[in-house]
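Our consortium's second objective concerns turning raw sequence data into structural hypotheses that experimental partners can test. To show how far this objective has progressed, the report includes one record in full. It was chosen at random from the queue rather than selected for favorable results. The single chain below, 292 residues long, was entered without modification.
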Amino acid sequence: MAEDIPQRPSLLERLAQWLHHEPENREELVAILHHALERNLLDTDALTMMEGVLGVADMQVRDVMIPRAQIDVIDLHEAPEAIIARLIETAHSRFPAVEGGKDNVVGILLAKDMLRYQPGQPFPIRDMLRPAVFVPEAKRLNVLLREFRSNRNHMAIVVDEYGGVSGLVTIEDVLEQIVGDIEDEYDFDETEDNIVPEGNGRFRVKATTELEDFNSVMGTHLHSNESDTVGGLVLGHFGRLPKRGEQINFSGWNFRILRADSRRLHLVSVGRLPSSSVSNDAPSPDSAGNRP
């Protein structure tokens, strides 16, 4: 009979062997996890996720929601052609459907359902709406995540104590608190790729790119007294956190927001303005809404 091959202890078993006593509070547990990292019982990614899981239990929906002003909605009073144009412009997969204003959300429209539209044919868009889920600002994120999983929902409308819409939260917003930023089609991770040519004279630029590096590559002389990064410079000219699709012109360049969330700017598209254009420090009239 072949000898039994000893099985390698699991992570929990190895931790249990190392622990001298059970942690009595969260601070002790976190300290133990950090000590486990030092002893190579955990890797950095595992530790980050564990800390994220612990943190989610203390966070509320209001901490991660997309503010009301940044919500992209479709109005059922609009023609299907106008709705399709907005879907293409914003590039989201789900939209709150409203009637007369953001406080009157009547359902959720999936962008893929609009593929059935045929010009000149009756299109019962109301029949395609999914039920909207409403949650209070104070709901804990761990409870919301459990509800998202059990109900197979990906989006919820956040309401304040008076029943008005104050924001929107997605399952991605919650998961990012655990695993970090979830990348999209605009992400590129190599540190040497802070500035990537897009073609047509435009460049994708990480918001964290140092202005000194940007000036060196682009041959510019941009500067800011408040920030050392491209993102900080752009935020300073907007005077607020811009949304995806918004643009601003200054110093002879056009900056279009490619990726931003409710907390920070991630990625911009940069292109030189024609020499005949007059630079300005205000958002351009054709600014569009966002959410990655």
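The partners drew two points from this record. The radius of gyration is 24 Å. Helices lie at 11-18, 26-38, 44-56, 80-90, 141-151, 171-179, 211-218, 230-238. Both points have been shared with the crystallography group to help prioritize constructs.
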